[in-house]
Amino acid sequence: MTYDALAKMARDLQRQFKSYQPMFDVLHSEVVEIGKRMQAFAKQIDFDLIEQTLDDTHDVLKERTESMAQENIFLNIDMLDGMYFGEIEEKLNSKWVMEWMESYLEETIEKLVEDKDCFEETTLLLSQSYNAYERGDYAIGFMALYPVIDTFVTHWHKSDDGKVKITTKGNTRSLKPKDKETILEKHQSILDSLSQEKRYAIEILFGTYALKAYSMMFDKDGHHGFKRHHTLHGSISYANLKKEDYIKLFFFLYNLYQLQEISQKEYMAYQTKKNEQD
User: How many structural domains comprise the chain?
Assistant: First the structure.
């Protein structure tokens, strides 16, 4: 390209820029104005109040999670969808949660059955347990859930990333007694260090109560009446198992299912992490 051609191109660009200059000036002034409005809006926000509201909500969730776990009701993150902070204290109670779980039971069963990467052949037990529930055979449905729960927790416990991919190849054994003891020991220290600023705080809060309950279900006293060994070995009164018991035990599994974002190693080390942010 010759010098004259370059000079002509430069003059053309200069003329075009001058013709666009008024538009640039308008855009600049609008950006400046938007910035001023955003600063003014930010000054009106009470960030201390927002932080206090989050802390208060987290405290309510901790209290409700603990109290409902004593009824073998285990919360999950889906229950909070569409719920405002101000509604949690009023709505999140045993009656509301039981109604929510019953209304979402079929949909959630289907969700887990479709996740064959996770549950593989145990999806058959999930389907048949729900079929028994639909027939009113609550004891049969209840019993069929325990092997799925056992297998799920075992595979989660040995997973490097928390993702569960159940396989029926080889021998899959339940957690060793010392593993269950460690889970029980970690429960309180995790609660003591948990704050709403930490990553996966809600999932950890809900999950730690389910893992604690899982460990206790193997003991002779069980977890508030839920006894894994007694149920599978004919040592309970099956006539006492009700519709509500099936719903509770299934959503106990679903609570654990939502823990897959955190590996067992991350979970066990969680209380040592400081100021972990999303």
Answer: 2
